[in-house]
Amino acid sequence: MFRRDGFGRARLEDVAAEVGINRASLYYYVGTKEELLVALIEQPAYTMTRHCREALDSDAPADEKLRSALRAYIEDLAASPEIFLLFSESQHLSAIPEAKDIVANADAYGKTLLAIVEEGIESGVFRSDLDPRLVMLGILGMHNWIHRWYVPGGRNTLAEIGDAFAAMALASLRP
To answer: Is 117 exposed, middle or buried (0-12, 13-18, 19+ CB in 10 A)?
Structure first.
């Protein structure tokens, strides 16, 4: 419901009706829609960061680490579609006190991806004339906007999109 109607318009009463329970039953589990949003995306968001960290910590060259991190990103989207909420509702998250750990986790993800890019530049696998932070933001910009236009069952699968994005990123980074 948050994804379809938007977080701002959704009410817990509507969520309860959507899942076929009464409002009181839903309030037993969550007190606010902000709490529900955090509960939906918290663990999948941490999983994404853990997978990116695993790519960074591997013994592979930086280009393989980046490809692995980006593949994991797409696989995590496919495995946990609620992650789309993380991106579509990011403007609300920073205003939710219960989401401070999710916001910090997003920052940790960016820093981990940045470390892969910096490692690639330092090792000569990636171009040295690019600002690593801008590279990281560009890659995240491509990936974090998938939620706006991706259609399940549409022209491209998530895996195809991920492969194309990784190929574009890596091609632009090679010396």
So the answer is: buried
Characterize 19-28 residue by residue with b for buried, 16 or more Cβ atoms within 10 angstroms of its Cβ, and e for exposed: eeeeeeebee
**What value does the mean pLDDT of the chain take?**
93
For 143, phi then psi, to 5°, come to -75, -40
Q: How far apart are CA 42 and CA 45, in angstroms?
A: 5
- The answer to whether the CB of 166 falls within 8 A of the CB of 71 is yes
Provide DSSP, 5-16.
H-TTT--HHHHH
Summarised one tens digit per residue, pLDDT across range 27-74 is 888 888 889 889 999 999 999 999 999 999 999 999 999 999 999 999
The per-residue pLDDT for range 122-135, each reduced to its tens digit, is: 999 999 999 999 99
Per the CB < 8 A criterion, the answer to whether 55 and 63 are in contact is no
Cα gap 8→92, rounded to integer Å:
8
Q: Output the DSSP codes for 24-44.
A: HHHHHH-SSHHHHHHHHHHHH
